[in-house]
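FORM 7B - TANDEM STRUCTURE REPORT

SECTION 1: FIRST PROTEIN
SEQUENCE AND TOKENS:
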Amino acid sequence: QVQLVESGGGSVQAGGSLRLSCVVFGYTTCTYDMTWYRQAPGKGREFVSGIYSNGSTNYADSVKGRFTISQDNAKNTVYLQMNSLQPEDTAMYYCKTVRCGVWGQGTQVTVSS
């Protein structure tokens, strides 16, 4: 059984930073391809960033240059460093293991102007 646990969300002012963490419990092979999504109130879930077993990363256009995804395989953890946060970044952030198709429970990020 695989479980993903996110943490690191919170409330910040515009221009601030947060670092989200996602720990994968269970099959370590599930950490090979990891993604972050977010869902704002009244909107659908959207892709934010991904990190893959070949070392590549990708980002949504809306976060390029501000967010950085990274991974610590020894800790089975994926991080999302979020800088220069804006009110439009306010959402519930979820991590997902692509290989195993499992979602975390989410962590709330709120950015005030």
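SECTION 2: SECOND PROTEIN
SEQUENCE AND TOKENS:
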Amino acid sequence: EVQLVESGGGSVQAGGSLRLSCAASGFILHEADMGWYRQAPGHECELVSTISDNGEQHYADSVKGRFTMSQDNAKNTGYLQMNDLKPEDTAVYYCARRGLGPWGQGTQVTVAS
């Protein structure tokens, strides 16, 4: 059974950092095209970043230079390091296989100004 579990969210002040984790089971994370998404209240779901099965990464302009993805193959876990957080980064963050379900429950990130 494919499962994704996000964790690591929390509340921080602007300028702070968080590292989100995406623990995968039922498939091999680094062999999949993965994405981090976020949804803020009243907003559509936004694609934050992607990493392909060959390791190629792309970031939304809004997070470029501040967010970095990585993977630990031994743990079958992906990470999203988020630095210099801004209030507009406040959202529920999800990881998912691109174009495929299921999605996890997400993890809340709240950035206070």
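SECTION 3: OBSERVATIONS ON SECOND PROTEIN
The mean pLDDT is 97.
The radius of gyration is 13 Å.

SECTION 4: SIGNATURE
Preparer initials: ____
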